[in-house]
Amino acid sequence: MPAVALVVAYVLFIIIFAVGVCWLWPDFVDCTDPPQIRLVLHIILALDTLAEVSFCCLDIVKPWMMILIVLCNGWGLLDAFLRFPIVHDLDSLFTLKQVLLVTLKLSGYALGFRNIGKHVGWFVLIVLCCVFLVPILWLTALPIGDVSSYHQKHNAVDVDIAVRLWRACSHAPERAAAAARCRSMGRQTLVLLVKACPCLKGPVLRCDPSLVRMLAPGGRAV
User: Fold this and answer.
1) C-alpha span between 91 and 160 (Å, rounded)
2) Contact criterion met (CB below 8 Å) for 163 and 75
3) Residue 128: in which H helix or E strand, if any?
4) Distance in angstroms (rounded) separating the CA atoms of residues 115 and 110
């Protein structure tokens, strides 16, 4: 029975990767503005982090992996998504940081996965989903090679997230700006959820009545 479950899991992964990552995701990126792509990447990262934290809670990986997950997903992927759609050079410190964090996370799973010899199939599947899948989505969304897009206006800030957090903690104006960005991102997330699942419109409006105009036909998220 465990072998059948593993085979089914791999089949589902292949289908999701082929249809979602290789087909639907590029179409979505081509017809969507960077802020909306960035928002979807944040939602995907949140779901991925939730899944990885559940692995720690279920004792699939060792408890110290929680620290590694927060570090790699926060300082690595979250930082990359906040800077989207900025493209960095291969020899930049940003690229070096991303490569080192992915390597660190892969090594962490190799050392922190319990009974890896007995469950090597599940280990490989979890690594594919939690270590490589989200970075692949980010890389395929970047306008790599599209020189004209490098000079287009966007609202991304090309500053390391650690520096931004320090500034937010030590400077009141930066803290206010960060809070405003978080509120805006939260509202955009609610609007996206309602568009994906209209039955949530009532609870969302009760939570934030100011979204009435944004959720009206032709309304735009800001």
Assistant:
1) 16
2) no
3) none
4) 10
CB 158 within 8 A of CB 86: yes
Task: Say how far apart CA 85 and CA 142 lie, in whole Å.
Answer: 6
Q: How far apart are alpha carbons 33 and 192 in whole angstroms?
A: 14
**Which residue's entry shows tokens 């979890």?**
126
Tokens of 21: 């990552």
pTM: 0.81
> Token pair for residue 46?
């949140």
Chain segment 120-147, per-residue pLDDT in tens:
999 999 999 999 999 999 999 999 876 6
CB 37 within 8 A of CB 84: yes
Q: How many other CB atoms are found less than 10 A from the CB of residue 205? A: 15
- Mean of pLDDT values over 58-77: 95
Cα separations in angstroms, 46 against 68, 110, 189, 208: 15, 22, 12, 21
